[in-house]
Amino acid sequence: MEDTISRFMAADHRECDRLLAACEIAASASDWALADETVTRFRDALLHHFALEEDTLFPELLDVNGAAAGPVGVMRTEHLQMRQLVDDLAADLEAQDRDACLGDLETLHMLSQQHNAKEEAVLYPMADLSLSATAGGLVARMQQA
After folding, report:
1. Residue 131 has what pLDDT?
2. Are residues 104 and 88 in contact, defined by beta-carbon separation less than 8 angstroms?
3. Sign of the dihedral defined by the CA atoms of residues 23, 28, 29, 31, in that order
4. Is pLDDT at 1 greater than 50 in this prediction?
5. Burial (CB count within 10 angstroms: exposed 0-12, middle 13-18, buried 19+), residue 125
6. Helix 32-51 to helix 69-94 angle, to the nearest 10 degrees?
7. What's the pLDDT score for residue 3?
8. How far apart are CA 55 and CA 61, in angstroms?
9. How far apart are the first and last CA of the chain?
10. Short-list 28, 47, 34, 37, CA closest to 85
11. What gap in Å lies between CA 98 and CA 118, rounded to an integer?
12. For residue 2, what pLDDT is reported?
């Protein structure tokens, strides 16, 4: 069965969520080596997800649906916020500041859940509809990225 944009991107959200939970477990235990490893894996997965959206999905969607400009703008702003939190988290890890790590992770968790819900309820269904003729190729390109 061919993946829809929604199905593919939501699965990527779940992978990022899984990695974020692993970060929270490692930081809670003050296992700094594991926390560093899991935060690196989470950061890489999150930035890859953002690149799929910002470099591939958003431009294609905006080319065919001008009404997507508002939701895309909101998502890009939230991506910036999450990037800043990941940078803050890296500094907290370097300082081995458990409380700061857990605070940033909690904020990241909350923000990402809200962000993902908006994408999955609004943006991805809009993309599935607007890009239905090219969705298979788009998903295939994102799978290769």
Report:
1. 96
2. yes
3. positive
4. no
5. middle
6. 160
7. 78
8. 11
9. 20
10. 47
11. 30
12. 59
Q: How far is CA 133 from the centre of its chain?
A: 25
Q: Identity (one letter) of the amino acid at 41? A: R
Q: CA distances (Å), 63 to each of 17, 19, 37, 66, 82, in order?
A: 30, 33, 38, 7, 26
Domain locations in the chain? Answer: 5-144
Which residues are CB-neighbours of 92 under 8 A, at least 6 positions away?
A: 100, 101, 104
**Residue 141: which residues within 8 A CB-CB, separation 6 or more?**
56
Options 1.10.520.10, 3.40.50.2000, 1.20.120.520, 1.20.910.10; CATH for 5-144 is 1.20.120.520
**Does this model's pTM top 0.90?**
yes
Determine the 3-state secondary structure of 35 from DSSP: helix
Question: How many C-beta neighbours within 10 Å does residue 136 have?
Answer: 14
98-101: Cβ within 8 A, 24+ apart: 98/27, 98/28, 98/30, 101/27, 101/35
